[in-house]
Amino acid sequence: MVETDKSLLDAHAVGDKAAFSELVRRYGDSVLGYLIRMTGNIEQAEDFFQETFKRVHEKGHTFRGEGFKSWLFTIATRVAIDGLRKRKRRPVFSLNQVSGCTNGNCGELGEVAPADCPNPAEAAIDSEQKEQVRQAVEELPPRQRATLVLAYYQQLSYPEVAVVLGCSTGTVKVQMSRALRTLAQRLPDVSGGAQ
Amino acid sequence: MKRHLTERELIEYLFKLGSAAEMELAGEHLGECESCRAELERLERKFAALDMLRDDVKASEGLIARAIEQASEPGPVKIAAYRKIPAWASAAAAVVVVGVLVLLTTRPWQEKLPEPFAKAPTSESVKSIQLKPGSKSEGFTANGTAVLSRSALGIPEKAPFAPASAIELVTLPRRDGVQLTIYNSADLTLVRERRNLTLKRGWNWLQFMWANTLIDPTSLSIEPQEHNDKIDIQQLVFPARLRELGRWLIRSEVSGQVPFEITYFTSGLSWRAFYMGTLSQDEKTMSLKSYVRIDNGSGEEYENAQTRLIVGKVHLLEQIAQLARRQYAYDSPVQTLKEKRAHIADQPGDRLATLNGYSDAWGRHDVSALAWFDLADLGGDGPKEIKKEGLSEYFLYTIEGTETIPDKWGKRLQSMEAEDIEVENLYKYDEDRWGTATIRFVKFSNDEDHNLGDTPLPDGTFRIFAQTDEGGELSYVGWTNVKYIPVNEEVELNLGAARLVKVEPVLVDFATANYRFDGDSNIAGWDEIRTWKIGIANTRNLGVDIEITRSFGTPYWKLDSAGADAGWEKHDATRARVELKLDPQTKRTLEYKVTTFHGARTEDWRQ
Asked: Cβ separation of B11 and A181 shorter than 8 Å?
């Protein structure tokens, strides 16, 4: 039988370490994905990831038993927005950039060319477009970015996003609309549709 | 729908952001309009680029393990721009009080010591001092004797009276990190710095100086950050005849570098907030940047300082600037005695008895204690002002990153940035408040709906610019000072007299009527009837909202207006108000008749 999020949290509250571990595994990928898209920096995202689950551990008793995912993303959003504000002046590196690479010629993480690898010119264009998209998303104000990432990438409904961000659904739609209008100006034209 | 859909409407259709009715309308139009369908497809292709970032992310086992392990440790870590004051700051403030008390109680012991210069430790120099097992800080008992213990570890039991020579002194190395908490309301800054001190095994003297600075030496506190069980901060001495200099005696069971945290108060640092708002071309949204200017007149340079600003009033015992300017750290006992005796002579008998009793019990050196008693309990008459303000609401505002703030320099730091803040433009005309000028206001709220609301906004100066064209050319609109703006509070910025929107009331007719007479045929009451025409001109290229307030100088009035000129509402007992919209480059005239009732006619008005 699959344990509910609430029962796992309750078990953790009475000292069951396996329960908390199960929660982290259950939501770890989506939380990390969200934080990477929010920060644009894998190291920062991992820091926020740990901080998020630390707060889940500390604030577990305040969870009322409904919508654990929304509650979890509320914490992750707060951690990310506060953290980004605090660390605004720190340099931001490409998500895929090899750590320590300063000249941009060091390739990307996990760079193993598959058998059906496109030719180098296409790969370069693809990489450049990806960077433009990443930059366009990163340049959005934090609230708009959070709205976009939650609704588009994490596929939360607008009412769920509203719960996470602690605002009305109308506000979420306004933020989303603004984010998309900004992106419409900044996103590159990608030939051949979605990748 | 005859017109084409805008990009906004297409986006809202694509992402289901509109209402059901809007979606249906847009869907119908798209079914008929090929051009809009093409535009929609273009947008779909554009947003398909977002999927390039839709890579699957896997949290590594190591990361998951760390998260699980970290979550099992106690103690929260906060990341917050604003928060209530942390416990250490309260503790540091308490150290000032406790530290002063401890040192006052040790005065008798200090006074018994011989000349404190360049002498090797002698057995006579410190007679009955013993170290309490496990004691970590200035652990002297009330009668001036600290309890000692062991001679283990090869460290002499008796603390040296003074360094044998200047070579023995450990001087403060450069800071590794510093945090400033500036309390603007009180010319007070809490400095918390971290330095790596090189200690030798045994007794160490750490010397610090505060010459030419505004540091309050009575507030100094030092704590090792490592080897707490092996390092004891024994005492802090202010050697006689050496001004603006203090020495800590530190007993260490370890050799090498040890990180220490030093905290103290200083004055001379202050901050001010500035805001720069830029209105969009249609003046419906505004981008806002806020800055904080920090001025350092403290006499000390703070490199790479994390800066935190306190908004609100704090409880202060004494003015730090006065403490810092004292000749000696705790002032001259002799001067204080004279001053206090003179002061005591002016006191009522019962209070004098209390003070004398205090003095008898403590001997000569309790004069400072007397001064303390006096300052703390009598208040007001002494040379130093005592603040007894209650603690009020305050916020801690942290500036991102670190900054070097050289002495005598000011530095402006960006503290906040927000885009797309929806604003309302409003023009107001009220002769009682602003004479014959039409005043322009910009209104918004410090809340999430306006892309703000994460933090309160401190007092500061707002400067507003407007974009005049697509190229980003700016024109200056106006400025105003604002008070502290809490979260979810509405803000109305008064940008001064408007030049392109005019309101000109003209009195076109005046008459009196409805006279009432008393028994002697004298006039006892009458009405005054005034007819006004208000010319309103909007020479801007944008439509404007105007609020006109008219005052009648009496609560007994009646206003008549009709047709397009209607809309007046009673604002308060003596004033009426109308709100209207004016299209770009238009003029309009409002006409109304106001009747005011005087004398016996006020009775009629009441009825």
From this structure: yes
My answer on whether A78 and A125 are in the same domain is no
Q: Which residues contact A2 (CB under 8 A, 6 or more apart)?
A: none
CA distance A103 to chain B (A): 23
| Burial of B211 (C-beta count, 10 Å sphere; 0-12/13-18/19+) | exposed
Same domain, A132 and A181: yes
- Residues in chain B with CB shorter than 8 Å from the CB of A183 are 46-47, 50
Q: Is the pLDDT of residue B420 over 80?
A: yes
Which pLDDT tens digit goes with each residue over A26-38?
A: 888 889 988 988 8
- The CATH code of the domain that includes A29 is 1.10.1740.10
Tell me if A63 is assigned to some domain: yes
Shared domain for A62 and A124, answered yes or no, is: no
Domain count, chain A: 2
Tokens of A108: 């990307």
Whether residue A82 and residue B79 make contact (CB cut-off 8 A), yes or no, is: yes
Per CB-CB distance under 8 Å, the chain A contacts of B449 are 167, 171, 174
The pTM (predicted TM-score) of the whole model is 0.42
Is A26 a member of any domain? yes
Chain-chain contact of A85 with B81 (C-beta, under 8 angstroms) = yes
Helix B7-14 / helix B20-32 crossing angle, nearest 10 deg: 110
- Torsion sign over Cα B446, B449, B450, B455: positive
Domain end residue (candidates: A46, A70, A90): A90
A137: nearest CA partner in chain B: B50
- Picking from A82, A133, A158, the nearest residue to B50 by CB comes out as A133
- State the residue for tokens 């933090």: B455
Q: Give the integer Cα–Cα distance in Å for B340 and A21.
A: 68
Structure token pair of residue B317: 């015992």
Supply the angle between the helices A17-39 and A42-59 in degrees, to the nearest 10: 140
A90 neighbourhood in chain B, CB within 8 Å: 401
Range of the domain at A78: 1-90
Pick from A142-146, B99-103, B527-531, B545-549: least confident: B99-103
Contact B398 A195 (CB under 8 A): no
Residue A84 sits in the same domain as residue A10: yes
A174 interaction partners in chain B (CB closer than 8 Å)? 449
- Whole-number pLDDT of residue B358: 31
Do residue B67 and residue A153 have CB atoms under 8 angstroms apart?
A: no
Q: Is residue A109 part of a domain?
A: no
Summary mean pLDDT of chain B: 73
In this predicted structure, the answer to whether residue B535 has a pLDDT above a threshold of 50 is: yes
How far B179 CA lies from chain A's nearest CA (Å)? 14
Do A80 and A142 belong together in one domain? no
